[in-house]
Amino acid sequence: MKETPLIDWLLGRSHWAQPDRAGLPLNRQLFDDIRGAILAGQLSAGTRLPPTREVAKGLSIARNTVLYAYERLTEEGYTLTHGGSGTYVGKAPPDPALRERVFGLSQASEIAPPRAESRLSARARELLDGAGASDRQVGSFVLGIPDVRQFPRATWQRLITQVWKTACQEQLGYGTRHGCPPLKHALAQYLALARGVDCSPEQIVVTQGSHQAIDLCARLLADPGDVVWVEDPGYWGARSVFRAAGLKVEAVPVDAQGMQPPVAPQTAPKLIFVTPSHQYPSGVVMSLARRRLLTELAHRYGAWIIEDDYDSEFRYHGAPQPSLQGLDPHRNTIYVGSFSKVLYPGLRLGFLILPPSLVDAFAVAHSELYRGGQLQIQTALALFIADGHYAAHIRRMRKIYGERQALLTQALQSRLDGEIDIVGTDTGLHLTVLLRRADDHRVSRAALAHGIVARPLSSYYADPVRAQNGLVLGYGGVSEEEIGPAVARLAVAIESVGGA
Ligand SMILES: Cc1ncc(COP(=O)(O)O)c(C=O)c1O
């Protein structure tokens, strides 16, 4: 059986993920392309399709998207799988017209094979179609990853050992109190000082990261079909959570002041999801005027604002940005925090700060849905914060990340002068590069072939008309020595697609 140059063929296809097909889910586009190639005879019987991981990498799409397309090809009879050895083009394509023409079979003899896809819920299909999580967690310029090599392991290990020595039975059980009280106390004190958050420890519900926190808000504060406003461009992870809860996600444009909420919408939102301290991914900081407008509109519509404060600890320029929650006179803002960027993502700890009236409902629901746990880890984290290690680690990392960002900015400016504009450098672990000429999807694919992850900015937009052409580059986990060579490879990738 022969290998196929399918990846090259797909990459070379002019209409791959182009705007005229942008309404179609990516897995459907991939399915259509491969099916089309089989029917056109470009992929003959017995040809082996490339491994899903390779296709995902080559096309900068989620592996699930490819798996989904391959599964459907097999289910519809275009391909066969041989006990884990791969996916092969079948001998008799099932397309009714083709079968009739080539094999003399009548359409009446077609028996539609059952499709696993059709047995998934509509919410699951939407979730899979919009899937954006990448398998790649390390290297230049992977997004959203802190430098986990800098995590103070020795201190953490000492605290964990200390907690285990004295762990009572309760600490090894389910987390029925929606988070360990010492952690909530330490957090409330820290956040009041560092983030201007207005809360008592009782208002905190500890979660497994922001995603679980957002999921709880979606399930408890809105019903299927209700409208949630999200920023456009925006965080695909939150969009996925809302879609999985059956909510109607409405993309609201972002300008230089942050989310631009419509003042007379057709349907009032139930939820408004924002990243005011560091808009994801554009880097815009929401202006005070916009914060006021948003809190007033939320009050008018009876909507809850979900403030995702995911990486604002790392602010390099400009005045510190207090939280929206602390500014909301109507107390409709729910603050979502995470330890993923400050400590490490695998810790899976985050938290919600709720208005007092919601705490009981969230606590019971958290326990019913997830049971909770990790109380020894939460106790160790409480000590880590109370003993000052948390603030010290943030200070140290802010300096390191600030230096990396300066290095990255300089390298980009000297290699790509005239080709790019750099934005969103005040805060966080990523910046955004606007491309003046080269197409961001093509650059992203070319960069991947050079071992560089550079997510296309346009892929963060729900509305292709609004989409800006650029790259989102994470620098948190990229060491100083890697930055220069990585930018050089990125520049080569940009040149190869007709920029620079
Ligand atoms: C905008 C945004 N919010 C939240 C998160 C973190 O989510 P979690 O706390 O579940 O790790 C990320 C991670 O990349 C993010 O980019």
List strands and helices in order, with pairings.
Blueprint: H1 6-12, H2 26-39, H3 52-59, H4 63-75, E1 79-81, E2 87-89, H5 96-103, H6 116-119, H7 122-129, H8 153-166, H9 181-195, E3 204-207, H10 209-221, E4 227-232, H11 236-244, E5 248-255, E6 258-259, E7 271-274, H12 288-301, E8 304-309, H13 324-327, E9 333-338, E10 350-353, H14 356-370, H15 375-386, H16 389-415, E11 420-423, E12 430-435, H17 440-449, E13 455-456, E14 470-474, H18 480-496
The structure holds pyridoxal-5'-phosphate (PLP).
Pfam families: Aminotran_1_2, GntR
Family: In the C-terminal section; belongs to the class-I pyridoxal-phosphate-dependent aminotransferase family.
InterPro entries: Aminotransferase_I/II_large, HTH_trans_reg/aminotransferase, PyrdxlP-dep_Trfase, PyrdxlP-dep_Trfase_major, Tscrpt_reg_HTH_GntR, WH-like_DNA-bd_sf, WH_DNA-bd_sf
Number of domains: 3
CATH fold name of the largest domain, please? Aspartate Aminotransferase, domain 2
Fraction in helix? 40-55%
Strand % is 5-15%
User: Low-confidence parts lasting 5 or more residues at pLDDT below 50?
Assistant: 99-111
In CATH, what is the class of the largest domain?
A: Alpha Beta
- State the distance separating the first and last CA atoms: 41 Å
Q: What integer is the average pLDDT?
A: 88
The count of β-strands is 14
Question: What name goes with the CATH superfamily of the largest domain?
Answer: Type I PLP-dependent aspartate aminotransferase-like (Major domain)
Reported CATH architecture of the largest domain: 3-Layer(aba) Sandwich
> Number of helix segments?
18
Strands of the biggest beta sheet: in what spatial order? Answer: 3-10-9-8-7-4-5-6
Biggest sheet character: 8 strands, mixed
Radius of gyration over alpha carbons?
Answer: 25 Å
Shape: globular
